[in-house]
Amino acid sequence: MNLKELAGILGLSQTTVSRALNGYPEVREATRKRVMEAANIHNYKPDMRAKGLATGRSMAIGHVVPLSTQHEMVNPVFADFIAGAGEIYSDNGYDILLSVVADVDEENAYRKFRSGRSVDGVIIHGPHAEDPRIALLTELNIPFVVHGRAGDNEDRYNWVDVNNRHSFLRATEFLLDLGHKRIGLLNGLESMDFARRRREGYAAALLARDIPIDPDLMAAGEMTEELGFRNAKRMLAESAPPTAFLVSSMSMAIGARRAISDAGKTLGRDVSVVIHDDDLSYLKNGSNIPIFTAARSPVRQAGRLCAEMLLEIIANPDTEYRNVLLESELMVGMSTGPAPKQD
Amino acid sequence: MNLKELAGILGLSQTTVSRALNGYPEVREATRKRVMEAANIHNYKPDMRAKGLATGRSMAIGHVVPLSTQHEMVNPVFADFIAGAGEIYSDNGYDILLSVVADVDEENAYRKFRSGRSVDGVIIHGPHAEDPRIALLTELNIPFVVHGRAGDNEDRYNWVDVNNRHSFLRATEFLLDLGHKRIGLLNGLESMDFARRRREGYAAALLARDIPIDPDLMAAGEMTEELGFRNAKRMLAESAPPTAFLVSSMSMAIGARRAISDAGKTLGRDVSVVIHDDDLSYLKNGSNIPIFTAARSPVRQAGRLCAEMLLEIIANPDTEYRNVLLESELMVGMSTGPAPKQD
DNA sequence: GTGAAAGCGCTAACAT
DNA sequence: ATGTTAGCGCTTTCAC
């Protein structure tokens, strides 16, 4: 069933039917009602491609998922982000066009989005410090929002980020307040913008209290359980091991937890602070685990905000650059120590 | 840059340029070469919508992500599956069209795929026992492959599944061989086909050795760490607690591990067997954790196979129904007990 | 081997 | 308030 057929049945022109269906004001209400009903009865739904061809819109948002040749891991926050953004998209009739590509082909994927006119806008995931995609998409003139930030030109593009620096500063202060002096940092890859900011926050908190920064207590790498385990283990084997860990993801925290347990440390006194995604269910009960506080990073909410921002930009391209800085939420899971300082 | 412009530059007709670009045989090689080069230089890429409109193909595969109103969790294997399928898709010029919808709207999402002609085929994720989507998609006459199976009409649709029943049977036998008599089952929601099969495997292994099936040792629910923790805790508190656990996902295993640790059990003797996804990095070192063997379920590989199968079906619609049954791989992570029986 | 023209299903400018 | 017509950018007969 297409427009022509439907119009034929109704004894109307395609134009009128189209107008009635798309809410144009100049059609009589009685006609609109009749058209709507017929469309329902015959289960008419427009061909999105033809619609796109005619209007220049595709009603889809592009997300590129790079599969690294090095470390084959899908961005762990991707699913949660999509869940949040997807809510907004479907409320507005948009779909997601996913392009899974080898990371070396990423640029080409965006170019194809552009020239194939297959999307109305894109979201950039996992920005590096100084990310080339910003310049590329600006050049391609395709509306985009960055989930995160890329370096320091923060006023030259649209973004939604969580305050990673402040989160880690706050979390470090919290550990310092508990009396810890040697705090191990298990960070993500520091080529990533978020990891760089996290380290800055960590370092700033230490410096503010004149505690020297020990390179041996800092590790950066992929956020896997394996690396969390290995790096924590290495640090714990040093002559002056850390008494607490600041961890950059759930997986690493689990690895660190294992290393702590292997090293025979008593769980109640070892502390990890983890900043990560929405699932912090493990905090909701008072069990005896070394992770007892976390900075909850609202990934799903970020997804919603990115999507809202992008749709607005698409609808109204000439607005100023916009951005949102979310605060993560410091959560306490058990009470073996004082509550975190709320600032 | 569109076809018309490119043809203009070359002094050829659109037809010839189109034919040259799409590998039709009737164009002279010299011409083809000239066209290809010009296309490259001017960075010509076809408008996919127009192409789709003309050919009837959209070069996209639909995946529907239902967001349950009850339990807001994204299918945990989704990211890994997409990574595998995405490889195949992008090799063949396909993209993924993702529709995130409230689960009650799922049927409508497929209907929109159909009438909007936005996809050439779909993958069904997380099939329930007797899944209505099979009938729906068959009726809509849209090519599809199921990741998993839906009930017992296995010869009436295309599917790629892992042998859940056999995995859990084998894993249970393994625990029995170690001398365990009371084995706790922490299963997924048993409305899901895979969970039902896993329970069958578990039950069959016990029955074969005349071990009664104790309902108190079986739990089914969402595969979260929280539920793994709670159910393991409950079982461990019983008068005759389990001496081993069979766990249906990584998250639940982590929860169970915590419950075991809380209960003060010695780690070396408590056993969990987990069947889950690709990331089993935690097994690669011999640390002292209660999870020491796992059935590795090749999600990414399943993604590849589903994608390959679907593309073949799309290319050749009149083939017989096809299916692939993958075996999970039983892995041993530490050697506190005998190696698993390989059968 | 190449080109002209029709058409895919829709929207939008221009009538009436 | 409704209809006519001309595209959107591509593929695909049909002609030469």
What does this 3D model show about the protein?
The structure is a homodimer of 343-residue chains. Chain A has helices at 3-10, 14-21, 29-41, 48-55, 78-91, 106-115, 132-140, 164-177, 193-208, 225-236, 250-262, 299-315; strands at 60-67, 95-102, 121-124, 144-147, 159-162, 183-187, 218-220, 244-247, 271-276, 291-296, 323-326, 329-332. The first copy, chain A, has 3 domains: 3-46, 434 Repressor (Amino-terminal Domain), CATH 1.10.260; 60-162 and 300-327, Response regulator (Rossmann fold); 164-297, Rossmann fold. In chain A, strand 6, helix 9 (193-208) and strand 7 form a beta-alpha-beta unit. Chain A contains 12 helices and 12 strands. In chain A, helix 1 (3-10) packs across helix 2 and helix 2 packs across helix 3 (29-41). Chain A has 343 residues and is α/β, with parallel strands linked by helices. A 6-stranded parallel β-sheet of chain A has the order 2-1-3-4-5-11, sandwiched between helices. Chain A has a 6-stranded mixed β-sheet with strand order 7-6-8-9-10-12, with helices on both faces. The interface between A and B is large, with 61 and 61 residues. Chain A binds a DNA duplex (16 and 16 nucleotides) through helix 2 and helix 4.
